[in-house]
Every structure is written in structure tokens, then in C-alpha cells.
Amino acid sequence: MTGRLIPREAGIHPPLFTPTYKTSVLRSPERALIAFDSSPSEETGPTFGHVKLGALDNDLLLNYARPGTSAIGERIIVHGRLLDENNRPIPNALIEIWQANAGGRYRHKKDGYLAALDPDFGGCGRTITGADGSYAFRTVKPGAYPWPNGPNEWRPAHIHFSIFGHSFGQRLISQMYFEGDPLIARCPIAQTIPDKAALDRLVAALDMSETKPMDAIAYRFDIVLRGHRQTHFENRPEGM
Ligand SMILES: [Fe+2]
Q1: Which of 18, 41, 130, 227 is the most exposed place for a label (fewest CB within 10 A)?
Q2: How far is the CA of 123 from the CAs of 11, 61, 80, 127, in angstroms?
Q3: By the 8 A CB rule, do 166 and 228 touch?
Q4: What pLDDT sits at residue 49?
Q5: What SUPFAM superfamilies does its record include (predicted)?
Q6: pLDDT tens, 98-135?
Q7: CB count, 10 Å around CB of 137?
């Protein structure tokens, strides 16, 4: 249990009305929000039972691939730790990810981008954090993809994250970007975050210490639920 939750810091989150991100306008509130103190229903539950995970659930290179094959693309490891506002690890938390394939195409019926689907890549994974809050996925680096927000706009490579902490108050849905991607500075979604330090916390760093020679490049992405060093919450995942 986390105890009383620290209120979110409004200043590091995007303004609720961000017309540069066109599809967010209709879902932005028209009236000022009303703040309530957290109560036991947000602070202590609900929690999930022990989820039975498959052996390959955190291995997107293999979990959709036909026998003897693996997903096409730059092989990467995404790993880090899940922490709370007091820098304590959060064990036994469910982390789910979804992403486009190496060409920037989602396996989704509404994704009509002309990049090819990879028959050996599904794009979804999940894992449970360890006793020290650690987690890791193997996957391919997702491609950038265009989206109809303006005449020529491209999402930076990103992986969507969903995290169930130990209470509803810790629920987090966010996106992870990759160090050095020039599209981050041009992305209307990423740039809705007014605090540069907060945006930087959504960028995974190249991690040569965990990179596997002749196998996969590692990126480190630590996640903090609630509090001063909180990883940015989105109002809503952008969806694709
Ligand atoms: Fe996306």
C-alpha cells in the first residue's frame, strides 16, 4: 500500500485545452475541474489477482512469431524500474505495452498506413515487476508513422505503456520515446507537455551496460507513479 497519495502537479502536465493536438479538443473539459481528496477506494484498490503470464508475454520478438522466426526490425531491450513517489520500488505491478512494428504500422483494423504488416509481430506485451520494481521487454524499435493532425506530421518512435500500481490512484497510461529522436521536438502530442524536464522523463536512454553484444540494443526507462518525480500522465492515450 502506498498510503495517502500526493496530488498531481498540474504545472508539468499539458494544459487541458491543447488545440495543436486537434483530436484532443473535443475531449477537453469545458469547465474547471473540481479536486477531491483521495479516499481509500483510490488509495488501496482495486488490485488484481496474480495474473498468469505466458513465458513469452514480455518478448515481442517471439510472442507473435511463427515457430523458428522472429519479428523484423532493430532488436531492442526496454527495461527499468517502477518506483513510487518516495523512490521505493513497486513490486508485483502489471505493466502492459503496445506499439507499431518496425515500419510504423499497428496491427489494428483502423491502421491503414501503407507500411507492411509483419506477420511475425503482434505489437503487444505484458509483464509483472520484480521484488525490486524491475521490468524488461524484448521487442523491435517501432517506426515513426504519419498522422492526420496537419499536412505532414509524424509521431516519433514510441511505445505505449499502461501500468497498474497498487491502487487506482497510481494508474498510469503514457508513452515512451527514444533518446536522440529529432521528431520528439516536432510532435504536437509530446510538445503539449510544457515542462521540458517532464518530457525528458518520457525519453528512454540508450543503455550500453545492458546491451547484448551481437543481439539487442538496450534502452532504460524508469517510471515513477505519483509525486514530485512522477512520470507524465496523459489525459488519454492518443490511441494508435
Ligand atoms: Fe502510437
Answers
A1: 41
A2: 33, 9, 19, 14
A3: no
A4: 63
A5: Aromatic compound dioxygenase
A6: 999 999 999 999 999 999 999 999 999 999 999 999 99
A7: 23
Q: Where are the domains of the chain?
A: 10-44+54-225
For residue 217, how far is its CA from the centre of ligand 1 (angstroms)?
A: 21
CA of 215 to the centre of ligand 1 (A): 25
Please work out, in degrees rounded to the nearest 5, the angle formed at the alpha carbon of residue 217 by the alpha carbons of 125 and 124: 10
| CATH architecture of the domain with range 10-44+54-225 | Sandwich (2.60)
Name the average pLDDT for the chain: 90
For residue 99, which amino acid is it? Q
CA–CA separation, 42 and 3 (whole Å):
10
- Which cell numbers in the block locate residue 47? 488490485
Q: Which three cell numbers stand for residue 91?
A: 513490486
Non-local (6+) Cβ contacts of 55 within 8 A are none
Looking at the DSSP bridge assignments, the partners of residue 128 are: 94
Burial code (b: 16+ CB inside 10 Å, e: under 16) for 178-196 equals: beebebbeebbbbebbeee
Q: Cell match 499497428: residue? A: 106
Q: Which residue has the cell 495474473?
A: 51
Neighbours of 214 (CB within 10 A): 4
- C-alpha of residue 42 to centroid of ligand 1, in Å: 28
Q: Which residues are catalytic?
A: 106, 145, 155, 158, 160
CA atoms within 13 A on the CB side of 188: 19
Cα–chain-centroid distance for residue 2? 22
Q: Where are the alpha helices (DSSP H) in 73-127?
A: none
pLDDT band, very low/low/confident/very high, at 233 (cuts 50, 70, 90): low
Cell reading at 233:
500522465
